[in-house]
Amino acid sequence: MKLSVYSLKEILFEGDALSVTCATDGGEITVLDQHEPLIATFKPGILKIIDTEHNDHYIPTGKGFIEVTAENTTRILADETPQVTNN
Amino acid sequence: MFQLIKQRMKGAQNISQITKAMELVAATKMRRSQEIAIHSRPYAYTALDILRTVAALEKEEYTPPLFTERAVTRTAIVLITSDKGLAGSFNSNVIKKFEQFVREEKISSKENYVCIAVGKKAHAYLEKQGYTILQSFVRAGDFTTPEETRPIAELLGKLYSEKTADRVLVFSTHFRTALAQETIAREILPMRAEMLTRTINNIVPEKGKYSELRSKGQETESKRKSRNLLIEPAPAEVLESISAHLLHMELYHLFMEANASEHAARRMAMKNASENAGELVQTLTITYNKLRQAAITKEITEITAGAEALAG
């Protein structure tokens, strides 16, 4: 499936992926190929993406939205992760 | 006489130095805000596209308040301008667009209109014209952050869902290129599929980076209607939080575009000002030199005439 992950500042991921896992407000879901259309909100956390070469990508995000369309496209809009300070 | 011209020359020179500096500052700021605006475009595009999907949904189950249309009696108007002047026609274009709207709608009483001013210029204008200003957002700075636009989005959402306003119009400037900006009036509430499509087409640039999104959006248009959408966990909650968040994002994007446009407009204005000052210096220098030469010639003539008179 085609996956794009956007934050306001940058494109976090764009390309083909086998699966994406994220913690929605209703529980953790994994979106695979040909998933049925879906809109959900998710909590701050880490997105796990497996791309077509079976490489794992871990992307920390703030809260956001995930949309799966009937055309096998998944789009994720994520807030910036809150800045972590070391002090 | 000499002193006067010299003073004016100095003045013009100083002006050209200042305007040149301002031009450089505006150019740097423009580049930065342009970058921010352009980087937020994929996000804004996707956000609006999701909104459009939601707006096109079958309305049987649940319609979030921000999508519900109703008869218009009261209108909320948002004017997005800058705090600072010296930006050419940037602010006056927004105001002109608004005045044109006032003429077209044949607004006689200002009672049914509440205004939200963004930027000191909008505030000053609306106050002078006697509109009800609900709230003013000034001193937003050169680069608007999502935190700064959040209260505005919340206010608009509240106005609409509490039925204080039946529609919300935003007058703002769209950044097309560094040389061309366009003032656009948008109806952002209620959220309607057609209006969102229009905004999307505005956001997606005509050419260059991200322009491929333009054709992509049109392809999926026809398939959009006929599908079942799973909304998790509960449609009401999700749709409400989505519509509120995405309204904020839409507004934020409009601000980014306005920021970039402001700096671009200021850069152009300052560039023109420096050029004019340069021309002025040139003409003044020529006048000064001519006068000086004339004075010298006159003195020499007097001396030679005096010498000849003595010799004679």
3D structure, described in words:
The complex is a heterodimer of chains A (87) and B (312). Chain A is built from no helices and eight strands. Chain A is an all-beta fold and 87 residues long. Chain A has a single domain, classed as ATP Synthase, domain 1, CATH 2.60.15. Chain B has 312 residues and is α/β, with parallel strands linked by helices. Chain B has two domains: 2-23 and 269-311, Orthogonal Bundle (Helix Hairpins), CATH 1.10.287.80; 40-266, ATP synthase, F1 complex, gamma subunit (Pyruvate Kinase, Chain: A, domain 1), CATH 3.40.1380. Chain B is 62% helix and 12% strand. Chain B has a five-stranded mixed sheet, with helices on both faces. In chain B, β2, α4 (120-129) and β3 (132-137) form a beta-alpha-beta unit. The longest helix of chain B is centred in the C-terminal third of the chain and has 77 residues, at 235-311. Chain B is elongated. The chains are: A mainly beta (87), B alpha/beta (312). At the A-B interface, β4 of A face α2, β6 and α8 of B. β4 (38-42) of chain A pairs parallel with β6 of chain B.
Any key phrases for this structure?
heterodimer, A: 87 residues, ATP Synthase, domain 1, 8-stranded mixed beta sheet, 8 strands, B: 312 residues, alpha/beta, Helix Hairpins, 2 domains, 5-stranded mixed beta sheet, 8 helices, 6 strands, 62% helix, elongated
